[in-house]
Amino acid sequence: MTASEGAESLVRRGTVITAAALLGVAGVYVLAWGYTPIEARQGVAQKIFYLHVPSAWSALLAFSLVGIVSALYLWLNDPRLDRFAAASAEVGLAFSAVMLTTGPIWAKPIWGTWWTWDARLTLTLFLFFLFIGYLALRAALQDPGERARFSAVIGILGLLLVPFIHLSVYLFRTLHPQPVVLKPSRPSLPPEMLRTLLISGAVFLLLYIGLVTIRYGLALAEEAGEHGDAA
Amino acid sequence: MPPENAGYAVAAYIVAAVILLGYTGTLLRRARRAIDRARRA
Asked: If contacts are CB pairs under 8 Å, which of residues 96-135 in chain A contact chain B?
């Protein structure tokens, strides 16, 4: 199989997974609006939670994997790890964009402000900017080895921010709600809300897998285009 | 009585759909172009 055939096969597989996941997202929309109850204190705006929280989970998973895989790259020097890190960073930014737009839209009616510079929000915004820098660095460096090494260091720095973001609601005085699922005690949600949130989490995870598969195939195709389509 | 704020939820759901569909479409277009270039290389 040539490199372009390999890339094509990955993009095809990723497209099927992504299409299934997007159908799943449509299903989450139906569940959120037709199945889950209206929260008594927050009203309908609480339904933003079914998109905001899973997109935050996916973004943090994506950026954590960039860091782990980048550390492995510095150790093993395998270009597949660098390709995966770049794919995961870009897809993570897409999920972060969902997180960072749906969050303020929820905050306006609930907190009375679109944004507040509290620890959770500020650290998340820093993480977003860090990974924009990561992709800018990758675009600026021409030498593949140099690009992979330098961006791996940024990827590892991003991983260091992730636990602070998760724990920021415990470590600092913050307006952001504390975790309702990812915490030591049992999830504190009514069953319809919890079920919808977990389904949404699974669907966003599938979407992450689909998009990363396409993005990995794209990186393979770009390399084949630059260096010739070797078998 | 829950507060009347459905407009914010509708806006958030539309914004999320635009970002996810927009990124997926862009990614697929970039992939198709890169595969065409790789085939010609």
From this structure: 97-98, 101-102, 105-106, 108-109
Instruction: Tell me which DSSP letter residue A43 carries.
Output: B
pLDDT tens for each residue of A129-178: 999 999 999 999 999 999 999 999 999 999 999 998 888 888 887 778 87
Question: Given B2, B15, B23, which is nearest A94 (Cβ)?
Answer: B23
Q: Give the phi and the psi of residue A227 in degrees, each rounded to 5.
A: -105, 5
Do the beta carbons of residue A68 and residue A159 sit within 8 Å?
yes
Residue-wise pLDDT tens digits, A46-56: 999 999 999 99
Residue of chain B nearest A228, judged by CA positions: B41
Helices (H), chain A: 3-34, 49-76, 79-111, 119-140, 144-171, 191-227
Note whether A165 and A60 are within 8 A (CB).
yes
Domain definitions of chain A by residue range:
3-37+46-227
Beta bridge partners of A177: none
A123 class by beta-carbon count within 10 Å (0-12 exposed, 13-18 middle, 19+ buried): middle
User: A2, A33, A200, A222: which to substitute to probe chain B, counting the most B Cβ within 10 Å?
Assistant: A222
ipTM over 0.90: yes
The token pair that represents A157 in the structure block: 């720095």
CA of B19 to nearest chain A CA: how many angstroms apart?
A: 7
Q: Is A226 on the interface with B (CB under 8 A)?
A: yes
CA separation for the pair A41, B9 (Å, rounded):
15
Is the CB of B9 less than 8 angstroms away from the CB of A42?
Answer: no
Closest among A32, A143, A18 to A91, alpha carbons compared: A18
- pTM for this model (two decimals): 0.94
- How far apart CA A67 and CA A57 sit, in angstroms, is 15
